[in-house]
């Protein structure tokens, strides 16, 4: 690399060595980079960057950068401010913990501020680096465990080698107790997603009060911050709940202990037949005739409740997808079976679905849903899962099509919201609408979701949506992105715009496939992907460990974290994450998945309020309450774990299981 006159060559050399040690890919980029700008001294004697007569900082720039960092130390506009968790979005155990710490705190005369009163936080994000003048001040101010620095212009990172000392920042990663990410990207959406990914990896439960600062004015960084803040709520989603894990282990146990099923396996071989992936969004009604016209030439994948819409219009799907566990999806599919019958439709479902579902299909096929305790217990291996198969069944349908080898996909009814608040699903779906109550229809369901957000629509304008649908959209985009450019996905739905798809009106579809080519590729999918279950698989996997004992041993380790944290919130959350989230040898344990959702949600609750205690000098009193109540939920989880495994065969449905859990007596 070239070196400007007057710079500290020893600092550059030390910085490059640090990058080679802890960020080798960036080191290679920096070593070969030829900057378009120059590192110069400005009128203040400070380093600045000059490009075609324009300066990054200008006179007083360093002082302004450092001053901004100081001035925004406690400013809410420089923080991610999450809403407190409530009983609506936590499980029974966490809700009990939350109610008890707040009740005891308020009875003791404690109050809670709207915003924390100290600048310390778990995460620090710098949108832009510049020459890094603000970084030392932010590190001192925030004392973060997690640091994410994103810079759109590699020139600035290159010039910073001569200005700031990178070694103390980069060596944090070597300590195993810190998380440091340095990103170079000039795409706002990519920046926002990668920052969210860093926060989720480092600690998804400590997003609240995250400190962020924009290093310099930039349209790219402005757009990235807007998108990051808008979707910050997605970072902590999908951690799981204790009682959901109970049900999914129970359902998997019941589904797999008998050999009447086949097992899904991913295939590396591409197949040209087009696939129609059908959700039950409202725009499906406009496209149903096109789907009918091509049903013999395209593979039809029905996602969840789309089955009734298709069959009511004379279209028998080739595959019926199901992701969600529980009795409600079972009843919906059972109503369709009673009305139309599934015939030769092949079920592809998560191993966690209600065990009664498979009885409706001649050929039930299970894939093993990852990131769950039931996956770790029962899965025969990674080829038998689906990447990005959630959070909704539409994700499952897309993931299955890609995993089977299909490369030309069309999305119908994948609205992920609605253009009109008056209709949230197809008129032929099992969902009730204001103008169509479907009274008396078997399997009919109310739609309780509120579309409280808007985002860019597929064919222009805006669509109404909400957090789970935005999560679904991001997961769809990631799944498709892994296969591009080999895969082409056309979005015919009049809902949200989905990255990595191409908007296409269904009237523009012109398929060249034939019934013969469809039959040929379905036969290949059957041979490669829908395999007989292996004899003895269930017994071998289930008998590998004393599952309740492994879970209780992990609960003891969590108690150790609480005992050793010295009432330091960052320290507690770092070590709690290491115990519950960190993967040992790349493989999470069943025990981690079984208990971590509830414990992490409880930790998120305590972190929110522990930061906001007023008067601050009584924070230790609140910590005493926290320690006692957190210890108590560890006791509850241990007792319920033993009870669950002793009664795993007793319950017919999740509703029976949850009824017993709801009646649980926690005391004594």
UniProtKB/TrEMBL annotation:
<dbReference type="Pfam" id="PF01973">
    <property type="entry name" value="MptE-like"/>
</dbReference>
<feature type="domain" description="Glycosyltransferase Maf N-terminal">
    <location>
        <begin position="13"/>
        <end position="235"/>
    </location>
</feature>
<dbReference type="Pfam" id="PF20157">
    <property type="entry name" value="Maf_flag10_N"/>
</dbReference>
<feature type="domain" description="6-hydroxymethylpterin diphosphokinase MptE-like">
    <location>
        <begin position="270"/>
        <end position="419"/>
    </location>
</feature>
<dbReference type="InterPro" id="IPR002826">
    <property type="entry name" value="MptE-like"/>
</dbReference>
<dbReference type="InterPro" id="IPR045377">
    <property type="entry name" value="Maf_C"/>
</dbReference>
<feature type="domain" description="Flagellin glycosyltransferase Maf helical bundle">
    <location>
        <begin position="544"/>
        <end position="664"/>
    </location>
</feature>
<dbReference type="Pfam" id="PF20156">
    <property type="entry name" value="Maf_C"/>
</dbReference>
<protein>
    <recommendedName>
        <fullName>Motility accessory factor</fullName>
    </recommendedName>
</protein>
<dbReference type="InterPro" id="IPR045376">
    <property type="entry name" value="Maf_N"/>
</dbReference>
């Amino acid at each position: 690399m070239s070196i400007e006159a007057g710079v500290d060559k020893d600092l550059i050399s030390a910085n490059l060595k640090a990058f080679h040690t802890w960020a080798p890919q960036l080191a290679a980029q920096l070593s070969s980079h030829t900057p378009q700008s120059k590192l110069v001294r400005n009128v203040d004697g400070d380093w600045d960057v000059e490009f075609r007569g324009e300066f990054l900082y200008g006179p007083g720039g360093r002082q302004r950068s450092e001053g901004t960092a100081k001035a925004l130390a406690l400013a809410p506009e420089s923080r991610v401010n999450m809403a407190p968790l409530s009983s609506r979005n936590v499980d029974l155990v966490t809700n009990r913990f939350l109610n008890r710490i707040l009740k005891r705190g308020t009875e003791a005369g404690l109050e809670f501020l709207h915003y924390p009163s100290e600048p310390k936080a778990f995460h620090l994000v710098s949108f832009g680096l510049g020459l890094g003048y603000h970084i030392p001040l932010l590190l001192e101010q925030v004392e973060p465990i997690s640091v994410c620095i994103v810079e759109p212009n590699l020139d600035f990172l290159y010039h910073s080698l001569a200005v700031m000392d990178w070694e103390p920042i980069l060596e944090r990663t070597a300590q195993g107790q810190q998380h440091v990410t340095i990103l170079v990207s000039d795409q706002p959406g990519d920046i926002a997603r990668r920052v969210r990914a860093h926060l989720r990896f480092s600690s998804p439960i400590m997003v609240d009060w995250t400190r962020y600062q924009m290093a310099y004015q930039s349209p790219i960084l402005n757009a990235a911050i807007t998108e990051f803040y808008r979707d910050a709520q997605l970072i902590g989603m999908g951690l799981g709940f204790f009682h959901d894990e109970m049900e999914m282990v129970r359902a998997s146990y019941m589904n797999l202990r008998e050999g009447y099923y086949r097992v899904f396996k991913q295939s590396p071989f591409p197949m040209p037949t087009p696939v129609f992936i059908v959700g039950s969004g409202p725009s499906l009604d406009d496209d149903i005739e096109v789907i009918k016209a091509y049903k013999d030439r395209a593979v039809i994948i029905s996602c969840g409740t789309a089955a009734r819409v298709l069959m009511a219009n004379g279209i028998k799907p080739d595959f019926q997808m199901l992701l969600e566990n529980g009795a409600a999806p079972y009843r919906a599919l059972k109503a369709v079976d009673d009305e139309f019958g599934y015939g030769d439709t092949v079920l592809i479902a998560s191993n966690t679905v209600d065990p009664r579902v498979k009885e409706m299909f001649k050929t039930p096929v299970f894939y093993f849903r990852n990131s769950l305790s039931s996956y770790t217990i029962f899965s025969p291996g990674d080829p038998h899962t689906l990447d990005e198969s959630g959070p909704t069944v539409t994700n499952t349908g897309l993931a299955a099509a890609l995993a089977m080898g299909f490369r030309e996909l069309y999305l119908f009814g994948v609205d992920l919201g609605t253009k009109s608040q008056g209709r949230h699903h197809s008129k032929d779906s099992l969902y009730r609408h204001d103008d169509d109550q479907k009274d008396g229809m078997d399997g009919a369901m109310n739609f309780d979701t509120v579309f409280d957000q808007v985002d860019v629509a597929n064919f222009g304008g805006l669509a109404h949506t909400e957090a789970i649908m935005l999560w679904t959209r991001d997961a769809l985009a990631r799944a498709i992105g892994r296969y591009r450019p080999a895969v082409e996905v056309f979005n015919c739905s009049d809902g949200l715009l989905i990255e990595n798809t191409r908007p296409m009106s269904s009237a523009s579809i012109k398929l060249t496939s034939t019934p013969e080519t469809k039959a040929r590729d379905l036969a290949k999918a059957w041979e490669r992907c829908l395999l007989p279950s292996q004899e003895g698989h269930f017994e071998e996997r289930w008998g590998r460990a004393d599952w309740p004992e492994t879970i209780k041993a992990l609960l003891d380790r969590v108690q150790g974290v609480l005992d050793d944290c010295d009432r330091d919130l960052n320290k507690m959350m770092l070590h709690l994450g290491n115990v519950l989230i960190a993967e040992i040898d790349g493989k999470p344990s069943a025990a981690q998945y079984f208990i971590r959702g509830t414990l992490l949600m409880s930790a998120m609750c305590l972190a929110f309020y522990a930061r906001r205690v007023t008067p601050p000098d009584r924070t230790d009193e609140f910590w005493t309450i926290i320690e006692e109540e957190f210890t108590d939920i560890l006791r509850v989880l241990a007792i319920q774990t033993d009870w669950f495994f002793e009664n795993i065969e007793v319950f017919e449905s999740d509703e029976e299981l949850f009824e017993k859990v709801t009646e649980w007596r926690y005391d004594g």
